[in-house]
Specification:
The chain has one helix and five strands, in the order ββββαβ. By secondary structure, it is mainly β. The chain has a five-stranded antiparallel β-sheet, covered by helices on one side. β2 and β3 (22-28) form a beta hairpin.
Length: 86
């Protein structure tokens, strides 16, 4: 899966990521981002960090979908009582 990295790159423009016993290099895309193709199992782990996101719709894994909006409305907050304690 191709991922984009939001971590600030090193001076050479790359971001190095260790995972699955290897070092993966995220290279500049020319559009101000760094990207790399990584195995799906590693991509799933990286997506949970909040520092990586799919490069496109074709790369979005089912686990990377945003949660569905809740259909149940929450109850309004209770207003403070106007009664004074004696």
């Amino acid at each position: 899966m191709k991922l984009i990295c939001s971590i600030k790159p090193r001076a050479d423009g790359t971001v190095l990521v260790q995972g699955d016993g290897k070092t993966w290099t995220f290279n500049p895309t020319g559009e101000g981002e760094t990207a790399a193709d990584v195995p799906d199992a590693l991509a799933e782990k990286l997506l949970t960090t909040g520092n990586f996101y799919p490069a496109g719709k074709a790369d979005a894994a089912p686990t990377a979908k945003p949660p569905a909006a809740s259909k149940t409305a929450s109850a309004p907050a209770a207003k403070p009582s106007a009664h004074k304690a004696a």
